[in-house]
Amino acid sequence: MNKMSEVTENVNNNNIHIYEKVKVVFLGEQSVGKTSLITRFMYDSFETSYQATIGIDFLSKVMSTPDRTIRLQLWDTAGQERFRSLIPSYIRDSGVAVIIYDITNLQTFNQLEKWVTDVRAQRGD
């Protein structure tokens, strides 16, 4: 087990299930679709109306394969500049960082290097 995941136990019907917990943080500029991707993954739905994420949102989903069960912790970060100071602490203990940009907005693509630099500053290469 590596330091990016944590083992938790859940007792259910006298069986012990071991969950590997993986923290996934979604990063990117405002309005690139971070929340939309998470909503599609979690609920298989798409919201046509836009509502900005304020601060950080959190969702959890258990995924199973024949050999293990993983609890994904999905952290949806706000893209607005005023919330940037919150993000490093969420990157620091994440197992995965997903950096998203809007293919119709070149400026969001040009900001990818900044996000990669932020992740490397907190997590290393």
UniProtKB/TrEMBL annotation:
Pfam families: Ras. Coiled coil: none annotated. It comes from the Eukaryota. One of its GO terms (molecular function) is GTP binding. Keywords: GTP-binding, Nucleotide-binding. This is Uncharacterized protein. It comes from Oppiella nova.
